Amino acid sequence: INSKLPNIETSIFAKMSKMAADQKALNLSQGFPNFPSDPALNALVDEAMREGFNQYAPMPGDFGLRMEISKKIEKLHNHFYNPETEITITAGATQAIFTIIAAAINKGDEVIIFTPAYDCYAPTVELFGGNIVPIQLKPPFYNVDWQKVEDKISSKTKMIIINSPHNPSGMLFSEEDMLQLQDLAEKNNLLVLSDEVYEHIIFDGEVHQSASKFEALAKRSFITASFGKTFHNTGWKTGYCAAPENLMKEFQKVHQFVVFCVNHPIQKALATYLKHEKNYLKIPDFYQQKRDLFLHLLRRSNFKIIPSKGTYFQMLDFSEISKESDIAFAERLTKEMKIATIPTSVFNEGKSDFKQIRVCFAKTDETLINAAKILNSI
Ligand code: PMP
Ligand code: GLN
User: Fold this and answer.
1) Candidate of 8, 30, 167 to mutate for ligand 2, largest count of ligand atoms within 8 Å of Cβ
2) β-pairing, 191-195 with 26-27?
3) Cβ of 105: how many Cβ atoms within 10 Å?
4) Ligand 2, atom 9: closest residue by C-alpha
5) What percent of the chain has pLDDT over 90?
6) From the CB of residue 180, how many other CB atoms can be counted at a distance below 10 Å?
7) Which residues belong to any copy of the Aminotransferase class I/classII large domain (predicted)?
8) What value does the mean pLDDT take over residues 101-129?
9) Is the alpha carbon torsion for 121, 123, 126, 127 positive or negative?
């Protein structure tokens, strides 16, 4: 066939996890926890299956789950999404992102992304004939220069994609960033895709700045989040999209033909589990303990480290260790040191000017201790 994505290869996450398995290396590459999701939540899935929720769910998702999501967003960000018309349950955030872009992007539309960027945005935009306009953020702080963003906006700009807490850098958008974004989006009539999958993995008392918190921004935003990240079950692939009714209507037109609906018993279980707010309110502390342990263990390492402020990723700068490209360095670590990480040039359109690898610390304390022993010897 005539490839629609001629320059795209197998995703780095699949590649590095396979290399980790082949090399019997400790896998800190692809982002997923190596500890179980809450047995109480798993039991609720079992219960839903026993109760017979084994056929198709409603197309937009289980209504009880949509209601709990609506309540949670209103409680945390003071914005009401109508569960009838403004929330759809998806097969993870990946499917929400695909569906948002499919629904909103036409041939020739420009979409601004901030690089380093999560790997699915650009190919999906390309698939629907859109053009990516990348804006490079620079280590160590990855701050956005909003004047530069304004300069990149043209009459063709349709959408800006943001991601805070940010994969891979672990940085956050501040309230001021969101206000600047809101201002630009309003002035230029832009849509916003706000990827908030790490909304609950945030440290040092910082507050997640959801696009839903900003009234004018919420009116033009698709928000996506992922239960896999929040509740340690990435393999369940359950997330959602929230957007104002006019946008959600277009989203659902596409959603029904992408998957129609997603895993029913898991939705039932999540609806019950979300009723207890401590189940998500405890997540920041849980991950802060892991980040702090990991940073403490690495305090004398040769990597330069700026502590992650959110997500379960930590960037490690290896500029004082090696002159290799990040890909060569990560491959060598996997094969020789038996530790797998993610080279970050894959988030940067292949540019490897920054000597950074990304590690995932959503791991048991024992794994973090073993990982630190290896990393400290490099
Ligand atoms: N966005 C970002 C920034 C991510 O890191 C991930 C995790 N893979 C996703 C989206 C996709 O989430 P899901 O696994 O729920 O599809
Ligand atoms: N989001 C995860 C990461 O950044 C991986 C998801 C995937 O494997 N596609 O590592």
Assistant:
1) 30
2) unpaired
3) 23
4) 13
5) 97
6) 18
7) 25-373
8) 98
9) negative
CB distance 197 to ligand 1 below 6 Å = yes
Q: Does the CB atom of residue 31 touch ligand 2 within 6 A?
A: yes
Identify the bridge partners of residue 191 per DSSP, sorted by sequence position.
159
Strands 131-136 and 87-90: unpaired
ipTM: 0.98
Ligand 2 site, residue 13, Cβ cutoff 6 A: yes
Average pLDDT over the chain reads: 97
| Ligand 2 contact via 17 beta carbon (within 6 Å) | no
Whether the pLDDT of residue 119 is over 90: the answer is: yes
Q: What letters, b where the CB count within 10 A reaches 16 and e where it falls short, cover 232-254?
A: bbbebbbbbbbbbeebbebbbeb
From the CB of 239, is ligand 2 less than 6 Å away? no
pLDDT in tens, 36-47: 999 999 999 999
Residue in the structure block whose two tokens are 């005539």: 2
* Reported confidence tier of residue 352, pLDDT bands at 50, 70, 90: confident
* Ligand 1 center to 226 CA (angstroms): 7
Residue 363 CA to ligand 1 center (angstroms) comes to 17
Q: Can you list the domains of the chain with their CATH numbers?
A: 12-31+281-376 (3.90.1150.10), 39-275 (3.40.640.10)
Q: How far is CA 35 from CA 39, 198, 289, in A?
A: 11, 18, 15
Which distant-in-sequence residues (6+ apart) come within 8 Å of 179 by Cβ? 214
Where do we find the tokens 């990516």?
132
Q: Closest ligand 2 atom, CA of 118?
A: 4
